[in-house]
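Example 9 (inverse folding). The structure is encoded as follows.
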C-alpha cells in the first residue's frame, strides 16, 4: 500500500455548502455600500463562476471604482468570518453524519516519514 504525506479535502462545496454564506455576505456588503442587491439567480451565477472577490464585486456593481471594490472585498471578509463559522459548522456536521451512513470503510494509509 502506498504511503501518503498529505491528504487533501475539497472544503468549499464538498465538505461544506458555503454558497449561502457567500451570498449573504455579498448582499450585506453591497447593501452597506448603498448598492442594489442582485436577485438570487444573478448572485448565484457570479458565485458559481469562481472568480476572485474583486472581480465578483466588479461584475455585480460594474460602475464602482477600484477603491470601492477593494472596500467591498475587505468588508465582505469581515462579514464572512462571522457568517461562515456559524453556517459551516452546521453544514459539516450534517455532511459528516450523512457520510457515515454511506461510507462503509475509509482507509488512509499511515504516513511514512
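The amino acid assigned to each position is listed next.
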Amino acid at each position: 500500500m502506498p504511503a501518503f504525506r498529505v491528504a487533501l479535502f475539497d472544503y468549499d462545496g464538498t465538505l461544506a455548502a458555503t454558497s449561502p454564506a457567500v451570498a449573504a455576505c455579498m448582499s450585506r456588503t453591497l447593501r452597506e455600500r448603498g448598492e442594489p442587491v442582485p436577485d438570487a439567480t444573478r448572485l448565484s451565477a457570479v458565485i458559481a463562476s469562481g472568480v476572485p472577490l474583486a472581480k465578483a464585486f466588479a461584475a455585480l456593481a460594474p460602475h464602482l471604482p477600484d477603491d470601492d471594490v477593494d472596500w467591498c472585498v475587505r468588508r465582505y471578509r469581515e462579514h464572512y468570518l462571522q457568517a461562515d463559522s456559524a453556517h459551516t459548522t452546521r453544514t459539516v456536521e450534517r455532511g459528516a453524519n450523512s457520510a457515515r451512513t454511506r461510507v462503509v470503510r475509509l482507509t488512509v494509509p499511515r504516513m511514512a516519514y
